[in-house]
Every structure is written in C-alpha cells, then in structure tokens.
Amino acid sequence: MSRLEIQKKESYQRFNLHQRLQHIMMFSSFIILALTGLPIKYSDAGWATTLTLLWGGFDSMFHIHLGAAVVMLAASAYHLIYLIVYALLKRKISMAAVPNLKDGSDLVHNIRYFLGLEQNPPQFGRYSYKEKFDYLAVFWGMVIMGFSGLMLWFPEIAAAYMPRWVIDSARFAHSDEAMLAILAIVIWHFFNVHFNPRYFPMNYSWMHGNLSRHEMEDEHPLELEQPKPSGKIVALKQNSGRELD
Amino acid sequence: MNLYRSFKLALVMVATGLVAVTVWWAPADTATAEPAGSNQTCLACHSNQVPGVPEVTWETIGSSVHAGNSCIGCHSEQSQIPHNSVGIQELSQQVSSNCQVCHEEAGREFQNSIHSQVAGITCATCHGDHNVLNVDDPSALVARKNVVSTCNSCHGDSNAAASYAESFHGKAVSLGGTETPTCATCHGSHQILAASNPSSRVAAANLPQICAECHRLPQANFAAGNEHFELAPVGAGRPMFYTFQFFTWLTIIAMALLIIHIELELWRQLRQARKKRTPESGEVKE
Questions:
Q1: B186 CB contacts (<8 Å, ≥6 apart)?
Q2: 3-state DSSP helix/strand/coil % of chain A, to nearest 5
Q3: What is the pTM of this model?
Q4: pLDDT tens column, B46-67
C-alpha cells in the first residue's frame, strides 16, 4: 500500500480547502514571478536575454510579472480575510502559529538530537518551530514584496506620500528580498517537503490536506495527545470519523 | 478602318504598359545600383584600386539612408580631381557642416547644444559616417537598442552610465523593453544641455514635466532626488546602499543557518538509517 493510500485510510486534516487553495495560488504565482523577475535582476547575463525571449520579449514578460503579482496579492488578501473570518466564526483567535518559549527549547533540543546528544527528537504540537518559521517567513516576505512591488508599480502615487529615496530603496528591497525568498524556497522548503528522505519525492499533504496517524505520531505527537475537546479546539478535525484517542 | 483603329489602340496600350512597368521598376533600380556619374569617378580610386587611397565600400553607403546621394553632396570640398589629402578630424568637420545643408533643424539644435562645444564631436560621432541609418532601423547607432552604448562610447565611465545600467529603466531597455526610457528620452538628442542650464530638459525645474511624459503626474516630489545615484555609504545613494547591505547580510546569515540545520538533520537521519540496518545483518547486538 502506498503512502498516499494509507493516508486516505486513516487521516487527520492538516490543511483545509481554503489553506490549500491559498498555497496553490501562492506557489504558482511565485514560480512565475521568479522566472519573470530573475531576468530583470540579472539582465547582464546571457540566460536573461534567452529567458526574456522565451516570455515573448521584455514588455510581455513584464506584464506577465504584473499579472502574477495580482494573483499573489490576491492570495495574501484571501489569507488575511480567512484569518479574520475564521476567528469571527470560531470566536477564538488561534495562537498555534505564534512562536513561544517552547519553540526555542525545541530548537536547542532538536540540534542536540541531530548531534547525538539526545536519544529522541523533541515532541511538537500543532506546528513545529520549523513550520512556524516557514509561515512567518512567507508572511514577512509578502509584506516586503507586496508593498515594495506596489510602490514600484505605482511610483507616482507612492511619491505623493514618501520621499524618492524610499521608492529607490524599495527597488533594492524588492530585488534582494526576492532572492532571499527564492533561496529559502529552493533550499529550505524544498528540502523539508521534497528532498528530505522521509518525504521524497514530496509530502502530498498540500494536495489532500491530510496527515496519516503514523505521521501525526511522528511529527505532532502533542497535538494527537490533546484530549478530544467538546467543540472547544477546532483545529484538529478527523476525516475518517475515527476517534483521536 | 475599324481593324486599323483597334490595332492602333492595342499598340498604345502595350506602349503605356511598357512605360508603366519601366517606371515601376526604376526607383528600385536606382536604390540598389550605383548612382551615375561622379560616384563612379570617386570609386575609381576609392574602391581599393589605388594604393594609399582609403577604401569606401559601396555596400555600406548603398544600405544606408543616404544611398541615393552623390559623394560630393557630403564631401563638397573634394569636388576637384585630384583633391588634397585630408585628415580624418578635418574631414569629419567638413562633412558635419555639410549635413546641415539638408538637416537644417537638427544642425541648429546641435549648434546650441553642449556637445557642439566639445572638440571632435560631429554628427558622425553619434550617427556614424557612411553607415548612417534611420533611427527606426534596429541597426542604427541611435536606435533604441543601441543608443545607450553609443552614449557610453564617451560617457561609459561615468556614474550616470553605471547607475542607469543598474536602474529598472536601463535593465528594461537592455532586455528589449519598448516603453522604458533610453538616455535620449530624458536628456534629448540634438539639443542636449548641461543640467545646470535652465533650458535643459533635465534642469531641476523642468524635471517633473519630463518625468510626467511617461509617469502621468508631474509631481515635484516624484522628480526630486538623484536619478543617477551612486550605491555608496555616502551621498545620494546612502539609503539604497544600506537597504542592499541589510538584505544581502540577512540572506547570507539566514541561508547559512538553514543549510547547517539541513545538514545536521541529514547526518542524524543517515546514522539512524545505518543503525536500523545493522541489526538485520546480525553484526551488532543491542
């Protein structure tokens, strides 16, 4: 039985449809933005000219960049609205993604485990420190890229509210934060969800949104241990109708 | 009688047709063939026939916008045969003043520009000599695609050239963008003046209007600041320099830490995998 089939059989929902859609909007626009933005950043390179021609020339490439930017901004707006509506509907603000002291001790514990100084890895709850870092890194990146991108797209409007050097600095922030984001995705995120031997070729939960019981025990044991609440904690939802404990 | 008339009519029609065809083909012929008369005389010596006489390739002139002109139209000082030998600088000056015979307005604008005050700059410096092409021709020295490198043949070492190449405007033009400005879009072409001159397009007072040629709102705030800033810890480029530094170091440090985390995790996984495998082979007891 493949991992996919096992997951279907006994699974715990990790990402709901909204979150999966936001992720798909985010990564598809991200790939296009990177492939249409990199030739501008490295315009001197030979491959930049080739890639520009593949997009149908500079003007067409740049308009595709702006189009993909709209999709990415829409994904961020979708997410922010989702956060607000979710909190209003559930009458509860989830702190699950907010870093806390345990994340610090988990990091130290994990490094000690990697070095062989601990027998077992740290036990994570709903989100591990790695997952919180990933989420907040994208959050920070979107703030930088979104605002700097809009300032570059509408410089006349930006100039009405801020001095010229802010807009010029925004161009450096846009170009360099983009590089940071691309490296973070290709090195860190791709390792965590693709190249890590545990998941290669990929962790499929971005598609079906679920984790198996085995994966839950491995990665989020503290979440699994939480007593089944009487409607109070809603983050954990079972698909297959099985009881948690 | 009737037959004679029809025959005459047919003859006239055939003759008219022949004339029409001749007229139709004629301009194409003169465009590709050598102009008659004097040009042949010049080329008798200047087509590598006489040692020591500079060669002029007819193909170059023939494909330029001046294909239909005669040699002495531009080289009027050399209309006598034999003519005195003339140095390239002097020749260039002579021809340049002859350009203005036809290109009156461009000539007048150039005479008022800062470039006319620099010794050695002639029309040919930017437009080429025998290979002058229309600005819309992609191979022209002043075409959108080439004009930046034409300016850079003198201004290449300037901070303006470096900052333009790094700017979005410069990158877009170098990749073939058709909506972004070249040097000439802001600075003008024949009438270029120093920014300190109040009549210059890029004089501080005129800049908002120049920016507004593309960026719809003529805002003083928008044009304020230094377009050609230097990315350095001092001067106009200071904020941009520190923004660049901040993100560069953030990237280096973040990537170094993440890669260390990945490597350590892989190392641990490798040891776990080996540990799991050895008991099966029965070599290691727990």
A1: B201, B202, B210, B227
A2: 70, 5, 30
A3: 0.83
A4: 877 777 788 887 778 888 999 8
Q: What are phi and psi of A211, to 5 degrees?
A: -120, 145
Partner residues linked to A212 by β-bridges:
A11
Dihedral angle sign, alpha carbons of residues B276, B278, B282, B286: negative
Per-residue pLDDT tens over the stretch B189-245: 999 999 999 999 999 999 999 999 999 877 788 888 889 999 999 999 999 999 999
- The pLDDT tens digits of the residues spanning A91-131 come to 888 888 999 999 999 999 999 999 999 999 999 999 999 99
Peptide bond into A163 cis (omega under 30): no
Chain B nearest C-alpha distance from A239 (Å): 31
**CB within 8 Å: A43 and B174:** yes
Mutate to test the interface with A, among B234, B265, B270 (most CBs of A within 10 A): B265
Distance between CA atoms of B282 and A192, rounded to whole angstroms?
A: 33
ipTM of this complex: 0.87
**Are B264 and A193 contacting, i.e. CB atoms less than 8 angstroms apart?**
no
Q: Which residues of chain A have a CB within 8 Å of the CB of B266?
A: 197
Q: Quote the CA–CA distance of B272 and B118 in Å, as a whole number.
A: 76
